[in-house]
TrEMBL record:
Occurrences of domain Small ribosomal subunit protein mS41 SAM (ranges): 3-59
The family this protein is said to belong to: Belongs to the mitochondrion-specific ribosomal protein mS41 family.
Superkingdom, taxonomy of origin: Eukaryota
InterPro entries: Ribosomal_mS41, SAM_Ribosomal_mS41
UniProt keyword annotations, A-Z: Mitochondrion
One GO cellular component term noted in the UniProt record for this chain: mitochondrion
Places the protein is found: Mitochondrion
Name under which the protein is recorded: Small ribosomal subunit protein mS41
């Protein structure tokens, strides 16, 4: 698994930030603060990346989850 493949698989436009992570270690050791201040990653993608890196640590392979649609009243 590469950082590019990981970010593309989890979706939510995270693949735009593959160039921000120089290596696999940088991806998995970056904190929310690092992603915000040093890497300039928006909140939505930052939370999504952090959530998926934790799931991967727990043994869950990444997969695409389609964003839910907003309900109309």
């Amino acid at each position: 698994m590469t950082t590019e493949k990981f970010l593309k698989t989890i979706g939510r436009e995270c693949e735009k930030y593959t160039d921000k992570f120089e290596s696999w270690d940088v991806l998995f050791t970056a904190t929310s603060s690092d992603m915000r201040h040093k890497l300039s990653i928006p909140t939505h993608q930052r939370k999504w990346i952090l959530d998926w890196t934790e799931k991967y640590r727990q043994g869950i392979d990444p997969y695409y989850i389609r964003p839910s649609r907003k309900k109309k009243n």
